[in-house]
Amino acid sequence: MKVKYNLLSKDERTMARYGTLETNYGTYETPMFMPVGTKATVKLLTPDELYAVHAGIILSNTYHLWLRPGPEIIDKAGGLHKFMNYNGPILTDSGGFQVFSLARPKDITEEGVHFKSHIDGSKLFLTPEESIRVQNLLDSDIAMSFDECPPYPVSHDYMEKSIERTLRWAERGKKVHSNPRQSLFGIVQGGEFEDLRKRSALETVKLGFDGYSIGGTSVGEDKETMYKMIDYSTKYLPEDKVRYLMGVGDPLDIIEGVIRGVDLFDCVLSTRIARHGNAFTRHGKMNIKNSKYKEDFTPIEEDCDCYACKNFTKAYIRHLITSDELLGGRLLSIHNTRFLIKLTEELREAIKENRLLEYKDEFISKYKGSK
Questions:
Q1: Omega of the bond prior to 31 within 30 degrees of 0, cis?
Q2: pTM
Q3: Which one from 93, 139, 253, 263 is the annotated catalytic residue?
Q4: pLDDT digits over 319-340, tens only?
């Protein structure tokens, strides 16, 4: 089935929305944080651990799975869900972000992008058609259009040419999309330019996608510029389709995105900072390697309902991290992922009760500095 977004409630003072998203694997509430499983695994976490932190949609990466193990192998396994044994909805990105980080400007052509494999340096060529073919074989619930993700900053002239190419690529990808179980999302680009964001959004909507994504953020711009990019995009997107802000997962950025009408977020941050010994808390990020936690026999957060906080202490997790034991990264990954998912759960309630701005102020008043 195609995903279906149902708008159930709106905050009276902002653009924030509470809704549900109907998928092949059930109905999920939004706003939602989506953990990233780049290579068909959310790093260090099992599917059962993802269910335990109340994960809904998770992401996998088209580029990486295209190279290893290959979409044909995953297709033979019965699709990505069976291959990785995740009984929930999966979104695959187009591979565009990884491709453009490996390509040079002269390698971006109308037909597609030439670049070298990060694994062995072999020459590769990715087109909108090939990105969709791969995602069709992966059999994810949501596929993404192949787009150009320019760096920041670029000139208005460059960005204008870029969004026009992205629109042509979106149309080409939509024409060859052939998996009836899979939804296809369009991506809005345009950098920091309001006129180009508007143009990209309106023209992408005309193509008629199952949902819409805001791309080109978190590419080096400052926070205020990022928030303007979101503002310039969401106000031109239809209310009856889900809105997805790509690659954003800092707690404060999630709150600001929700205020601006975003429904879905994804980021590698929750597991990445965990592997380096850092935890999200209500009072800012905690570096568990700090010596003051050596004899701290309390959980990361007293009121957290995750497995790590209910069963282990800071002292123990610090010991694991400083001893290079993998369990330390696992426990922090569980906590951090649950933290961001719980944040979106609380944002939903705040929207329904028309107290989102108060929630934001309360959250920020605590979330400052580092422990």
A1: yes
A2: 0.97
A3: 93
A4: 999 999 999 999 999 999 999 9
